[in-house]
Specification:
75% of the residues lie in helices and 3% in strands. The protein has 406 residues and is mainly alpha-helical. The chain folds into two domains: 198 residues, Growth Hormone, Chain: A (Up-down Bundle); 177 residues, MFS general substrate transporter like domains (Growth Hormone, Chain: A, Up-down Bundle), CATH 1.20.1250. The protein has a two-stranded antiparallel ribbon. The longest helix has 30 residues. 47% of the residues are buried.
């Protein structure tokens, strides 16, 4: 029997083979939400280790910048673009137990890249770490959707996404500090949080939350994704949004440096952008529950375009620039929770795949767009390349409007 947990009911029963698990739903739902949010924090924490590690790896293995770029691309493919494909098989077969392997795989392989003897082994370790991250995202977001009442799915997914954003934001600073204080060879000690959380998942039976089966207990047939114009359009919208979200923190330090400003200002501005995104994702989830997924995405895009335009045409040293960058980050990420829940509602039997499309594949598309931004910056200058980011954002507004609400 496939059970969909609801914190408003009194009890729920999960079955694994012939052994039932009966738990108090309110306690299980809250505890599971906390653990899944913490899991996204840990997963994205390890997911963003590579930028902080690259300088040390390049020096240790004598790696060229071209090879370094290829390493980042391979990691992006395995950790992001594979998510909907992995989610598809999880929807069909369950595989909830795989979540117990996601944190150890991500942590172990990314933390031991400092010890690899050569570049081919480095690529293997990075691929395995990426797969661990790719597995967690559709699993975790699908589980969050299963244990949350329909009226609060937006805020639940928002908290889940916000946890990941915080982990992603602090990872490079933690890695650089740890290496500076204790040395590169001590990095494997950072696997401890991953294994500790895995034990908590096992004790609390997170790995037994069923993910196969309908997302919202309806009997409505799920359309095949490639025959659904709505899901394809929504994925395109989130890919266009991700273009700006990935390109801005990637090239912002370079742009600020070109203006003669110190690296510390660039670091502070990136923090402002990422913190804005974390807060905006939570607010966006709440607004999605209150005013609808489509309306929330539309208004986030409407607000983002002028805020980003004003930031790009202001001096980065004035206080208003930080406020505008914060708003840009908040509005860009506020669309994410609504997109995940909306995609899951469009594909009720493929919630994990839908999550992978919105959180992974769309982010990978944003990475491809960032490569275009970099090439454009070489030809026209970084300021014009940044301004061009407004074009996909503006184009995504009528594209979102054309998606039917139901």
């Amino acid at each position: 029997m496939t059970a969909v947990a609801d914190v408003t009911t009194t009890k729920m029963t999960y079955h694994k083979q012939d052994k039932p698990i009966t738990q108090q739903t309110s306690n299980h739902g809250f505890c599971s939400m906390v653990l899944l949010t913490l899991g996204h924090f840990i997963s994205d924490f390890y997911n963003n280790f590579l930028p902080g590690l690259l300088p040390a790896i390049i020096a240790g293995l004598g790696m060229s910048l071209t090879t370094s770029g290829l390493l980042v691309m391979v990691y992006a493919i395995t950790s992001s673009i594979t998510q909907p494909f992995l989610g598809y098989y999880m929807d069909k077969n369950g595989y909830s137990w795989l979540i117990l392997f996601t944190f150890p795989a991500s942590a172990l392989f990314i933390c031991t890249t400092s010890l690899v003897p050569n570049i081919p082994v480095l690529f293997v370790f990075v691929i395995l770490a990426g797969i661990g991250s790719a597995l967690f995202h559709p699993l975790g977001s699908s589980m969050m959707g299963k244990i949350t009442p329909l009226a609060h799915k937006g805020i639940a997914i928002a908290l889940f996404i916000g946890g990941g954003n915080v982990g992603f934001a602090i990872a490079p600073a933690v890695v650089i500090y740890f290496i500076f204080q204790y040395g590169l060879d001590s990095l494997p000690w950072l696997v401890i949080p991953a294994f500790a959380l895995t034990i908590a998942y096992y004790v609390k039976n997170i790995h037994r939350i069923p993910i196969a089966g309908p997302y919202n207990q309806t009997n409505a047939p799920t359309p095949v994704w490639y025959k659904s114009r709505s899901i394809i359009k929504l994925n395109a919208v989130m890919g266009l949004r991700s273009w700006a979200h990935v390109a801005i923190p990637t090239f912002l330090p370079v742009w600020i440096g070109q203006q003669g400003q110190p690296p510390t200002l660039a670091a502070n501005m990136i923090t402002v952008f990422l913190v804005g995104g974390a807060i905006g994702s939570v607010i966006g989830g709440y607004l999605g529950d209150r005013f609808g997924r489509k309306n929330t995405i539309l208004w986030s895009l409407f607000l983002c375009v002028p805020a980003l335009f004003l930031f790009l045409n202001s001096s980065v040293t004035v206080p208003s620039a930080s406020i505008l960058l914060f708003i840009s980050g908040a509005t860009l990420l506020s669309a994410m929770p609504s997109s995940v829940v909306w995609a899951q509602e469009m594909m009720p039997d493929n919630a994990a795949m839908a999550s992978g499309m919105m959180m992974g594949f769309a982010y990978g598309l944003g990475g491809l767009g960032t490569a275009i931004t970099g090439a454009m910056a070489d030809l026209t200058g970084l300021h014009f390349a940044f301004l061009f980011l407004l074009v996909p954002l503006v184009f995504s507004i009528p594209l979102t409007y054309s998606i039917p609400q139901k």
